[in-house]
Design goal:
The protein is mainly alpha-helical. It is built from 10 helices and no strands. It is globular, with a radius of gyration of 20 Å. The N and C termini lie far apart (56 Å).
Length: 225
């Protein structure tokens, strides 16, 4: 593979793709260290070793970088999820028990991918703004493909969900994003919870909260006996 720093300006499609991947990989590494809100174009440019104007030749904005990364990370997560569902769901159990197992696998898997949940939390209110029609169209098409894969995995374990699978999967991802915003409270809030333990009922632990929400949603779309 070409070293993205061995040429001053990408002139071929191969070189452009190398630069795009370098920017995405650098952004991904940043998300392992900091929340989405802390990722800036200036810091990304510094880490990738390009001027900010150079980064903007490959991605029209910070949000466009993060949307592409979100699509990539979702696809990678789904590849892991497929094996986790195979191991974690017993096909011989009744539908409600299989639904509980699917919820357990999904909540455990999503909770282990905090950066992905953070991206979903920022998607509607932040990341889908400051992007062009074409950028958001590309993102939505990739999202639709990923949603179809996730729905197929759920239906394989729980065919009873039928046509509700896509809506359930979308809901699960959006709920994971919403809940993730509450799982890393700032120091001031932690101090409040410590001084008044009764208020700590508002503190959210991602995995159990996700498991409850996903179980409720999934069981709710099963056909009535």
């Amino acid at each position: 593979m070409l070293d993205p720093m061995t040429f001053q300006r990408a002139r071929t499609e191969e070189q452009r793709e190398v630069r795009r991947r370098a920017i995405l990989e650098t952004t991904s590494a940043m998300l392992d260290e900091m929340p989405v809100a802390a990722v800036t174009l200036n810091e990304l440019s510094r880490r990738v070793g390009l001027a900010k104007t150079a980064v903007l030749r490959y991605f029209e904005s910070r949000e466009a970088v993060l949307l592409d990364l979100m699509d990539d990370r979702t696809a990678s997560w789904l590849a892991e999820l497929e094996q986790e569902l195979v191991r974690g769901v017993d096909p011989d159990l009744p539908a409600v028990r299989r639904a509980e197992q699917v919820a357990d696998v999904l909540s455990r898997s999503l909770a282990a991918h905090t950066a992905l949940c953070d991206l979903y939390g920022a998607q509607g209110g932040v990341l889908e703004h400051n992007v062009s029609v074409e950028a958001v169209r590309r993102h939505k098409r990739a999202s639709l493909d990923n949603l179809a894969v996730m729905a197929r995995l759920v239906r394989r374990c729980l065919p009873e969900v039928g046509d509700h699978a896509e809506q359930f999967c979308l809901t699960a991802l959006l709920v994971a994003g919403a809940l993730s915003a509450y799982t890393s409270p700032p120091p001031s809030l932690l101090a409040v919870y410590e001084s008044e333990p009764a208020l700590a009922v508002h503190r959210v632990e991602l995995r159990p909260a996700l498991r409850l929400a996903i179980t409720t949603s999934l069981v709710g779309v099963l056909p009535r006996p």
